[in-house]
Amino acid sequence: MKGLVVVGHGSKLPYYREVMEYHVKRIRQMEIFDEVEVAFAAHGRKPTVDEVIRTMKSSEIYLVPLFMAYGIHTTEELPEMLGFEFKEGVIKGEINEKRIILCEPVGKDDLITFAILNRVFAAKSFNVE
């Protein structure tokens, strides 16, 4: 079984989690992974990454940080929580006989450029003539 955990920062505002759940629901509908879950990296936000990993049945779990760039969560906190040593790029390790793949933050993905432009075009006041 393969699993995916979308890791966000977390917020006191419920809309933040709703947006993450929206994307998780869409990924689930694609049926690429056996399990798709949300976790949070900020202290005090639940569920945490390690809590989610423990509950998953998948033997291979991909963690995708929903961050624009490397920061303290992706360079220090997540690797430390997982018992991994940070290095830029994909980090692989094992927890409780589960293979864990910590992916790079999404920010440098070329599709983010289009998402930024899409927000401008969605404002409908922008004229592309």
Descriptive key words:
129 residues, Rossmann fold, alpha/beta, globular, single chain
Question: What does this protein structure show overall?
Answer:
The chain has a single domain, classed as 3-Layer(aba) Sandwich (Rossmann fold), CATH 3.40.50. The chain has helices spanning 14-30, 49-55, 72-82, 110-122; strands spanning 2-8, 35-40, 60-65, 91-95, 98-102. α1 (14-30) links the parallel β1 (2-8) and β2. With 129 residues, the chain is an alpha/beta fold.
Please give the structural blueprint.
Layout: E1 2-8, H1 14-30, E2 35-40, H2 49-55, E3 60-65, H3 72-82, E4 91-95, E5 98-102, H4 110-122
Parallel strand pairs: 1-2, 1-3, 3-5
Antiparallel strand pairs: 4-5
Order of helices and strands: EHEHEHEEH
Strands, count: 5
- Architecture, CATH level 2? 3-Layer(aba) Sandwich
CATH class assignment = Alpha Beta
Domain tally: 1
Q: Please report which band the strand proportion falls in: under 5%, 5-15%, 15-25%, 25-35%, 35-45% or over 45%.
A: 15-25%
Tally of separate helices: 4
Mean pLDDT: 91
- Cα gyration radius (Å): 16 Å
- Give the overall form: globular
Structural class: alpha/beta
Unreliable segments (pLDDT under 50, ≥5 consecutive)?
none
* N- to C-terminal distance: 49 Å
